[in-house]
Amino acid sequence: MAKENSTGWRLNRQINLSVLVQLLLLASLIVGSWLNLQTQLNVLQRDVDMLLAGQKEFEQKLESLSLKSISYDYRLRAFEERTSQNNETF
């Protein structure tokens, strides 16, 4: 019984330097990827904020043009009514 079974698998508990370096590289890759994603998300958030600001500005300009268009439409109708009334009197 003092002799172990040599055909079975044994778990080697030693951690050699290459495994440690590989683990450190993997951890640094994970952290680097996470930081890169955070940077990309910040850039994307800034772009979305700029798009929303541009959309608000465009919406305000469009509303202003719509109000001007309505105003011009009323003025044109009033002008047409006046000219038709003047034509009827002659």
Q: Overview of this structure, please?
A:
It contains one helix and no strands. The chain has one helix at 17-89. The radius of gyration is 39 Å and the shape is rod-shaped. The mean pLDDT is 88.
- Largest sheet report: none
Q: Helix amount, in percent?
A: over 70%
Structural shape: rod-shaped
> For the CA atoms, what is the radius of gyration?
39 Å
Uncertain stretches = none
How are the secondary structure elements laid out?
Layout: H1 17-89
List keywords for this structure.
mainly alpha, 1 helix, rod-shaped
Concise overview:
By secondary structure, the chain is an all-alpha fold.
